[in-house]
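Saturday, quiet lab. Running sequence design on the structure tokens for the scaffold JK sent over.
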């Protein structure tokens, strides 16, 4: 039996469509296996979901002036947060998502026998950090270009890593937590400061806030246990985690 040209074309298109569907399904299954799913993005979101939370879109370097705003100390009491960090004069610390260095250059004088790594992925922030480090002459500050899945620091090198209003924007939170886990010394600590999602008076977009429950769920799934949680900050969680050994 002869098959018409139109029928042959229909069969070919059907095979291609089925192949494409199978490929998409395999890709979705692979994504889910890695711990991520996707959805239609909310306003300010990426559409990428981790453990039930949509990951927020990253704040670009154009928002640097907001990080250094004059009202930040009054709004967040950053100095109180630093006073409660587990710092010793010889501590090795990583400010992950350092931005303009608002925290980096306030912590550096407290660890003069140690080191502060200012880890950042955006080139404009990196340039600003390097210029500021040279201007202040702080030899114990080192600027490091991080990646979206790595902080590019040696294994077992850190006493403390911290992220201030950064974690909710990580494109690959699972991989980044694993990278931080490797970089921490045994018993090393990871501090998260995140705007409180539980508090409706915190006037921050929803995707840029996190609940304490969600933070614990994600970190405890990646080798950390809650060491200390404090509520002394005006609008942020202060949650200190300890590295657990696998």
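Result came back. Writing it out in full:
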């Amino acid at each position: 039996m002869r098959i018409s040209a139109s029928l042959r074309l229909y069969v070919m298109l059907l095979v291609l469509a089925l192949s494409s569907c199978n490929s998409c399904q395999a890709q979705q299954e692979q994504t889910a296996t890695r711990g991520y799913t996707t959805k239609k993005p909310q306003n300010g979101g990426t559409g990428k979901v981790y453990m039930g939370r949509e990951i927020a879109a990253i704040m670009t370097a154009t928002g640097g002036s907001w990080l250094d705003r004059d009202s930040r100390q009054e709004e967040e009491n950053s100095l109180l947060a630093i006073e409660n960090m587990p710092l010793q004069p010889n501590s090795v610390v990583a400010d992950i998502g350092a931005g303009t260095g608002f925290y980096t250059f306030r912590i550096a004088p407290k660890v003069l026998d140690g080191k502060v790594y200012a880890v950042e992925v955006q080139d404009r922030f990196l340039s600003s950090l390097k210029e500021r480090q040279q201007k202040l002459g702080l030899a114990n500050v080192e600027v490091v270009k991080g990646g979206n899945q790595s902080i590019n620091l040696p294994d077992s090198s850190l006493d403390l890593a911290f992220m201030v209003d950064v974690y909710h924007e990580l494109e690959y939170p699972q991989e980044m937590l694993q990278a931080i886990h490797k970089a921490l010394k045994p018993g090393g600590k990871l501090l998260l400061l995140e705007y409180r999602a539980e508090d409706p008076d915190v006037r921050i977009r929803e995707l840029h806030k996190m609940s304490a429950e969600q933070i614990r769920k994600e970190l405890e799934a990646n080798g950390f246990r809650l060491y200390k949680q404090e509520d002394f900050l005006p609008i942020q969680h202060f949650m200190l985690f300890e590295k657990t050994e696998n």
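Notes for JK: The chain is about 35% helix and 25% strand. The chain has a mean pLDDT of 88. Ask whether to fix the surface positions before the next round.
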